[in-house]
Predict the 3D structure of the following.
Amino acid sequence: MPRILSGLSLFFVVASLPAAEPARVRVVRDKNGIDFTAGDALVTRYVIADDIAKPYLWPLNAPGNVAVTRGWPMQKGLAQETTDHVHQKSAWFCHGDVIPEGLELKERSADKHVKGVDFWSETRGHGRIVCVEVADEKSDGSKASVVTRNEWRAPDGTKIMDERRVITVRNFGDSRLIALDIDLHASVCPITFGDTKEGSMGVRVSDEFRLTGPKSDGVVTSADGTIAKAPAKENLPMWGRRADWHDYSGTTDGKMVGIALFDHPKNPYRSAWHTRAYGLMAANPFGRTVAAFPDTKSETDLVRMAKGDHLKLRYALLVHTGGAKEAKVAERFAAFAEE
């Protein structure tokens, strides 16, 4: 006679089963980009095509294949689509005023406030960050990484700075971590990072949960506990403040998801946050008086690199299901901070 398990016995049997291992992360490359997959699911694509202003990560998918960043202008016709700020493509790293000291610029930015090269916007006279090499691809279980090399170029194509950038993707099952290890090298001339709010590690979240969306339930959470909810105006209480991380969460495609941006505590210059209700979330380590960030506006010392110097920065994106609390964003940051 077959043995029938009671409800309590069945509970203990299920509870004792080992948790499933997160799906393996793999790297697939082509001439225009690098795909990171977890099992059969696309986590993100690192776009490096020849005709773009700078490399960017798009799409960025939470588990369940739910996009957490804006699709426009790469993809059009999405729900509640906005078409502002064409330069804010999903997720990227750059800065809005990079000054090559002693190097004559043959072409200037259309923005009269920019003293050097504008890598943030895509208006007339902007610079370009060009990926010139992809190497050292590694995959180890639920983690994979790729080493890339970039040239930061003035509008006329002249190189002003080199960069080594490592993209690492980890799959935790209920979330994915995309880390960027950035090594800026003043190989050509001394470099000064201009005082502007337009920088630097940026994300443009899904239009469906931006705080100004007509049907949004979006929430922005700062590491210090400050919260802003939809509907909201642009002057968010965490704007221009220093914090370890910000998280933008809400419902898209009927599912609660989010994306957190981490500023590693060992970065030599900690970021103030250029986070807006319309969907921008950016960590800026270079803004000072002109940027008018409340936590840095009294500071006048710009970040400078002598010729030959390196500046190393580390950021990460946590793409997750649920809100910031359910996704344990604070705990994930604590683990990232120990690395």
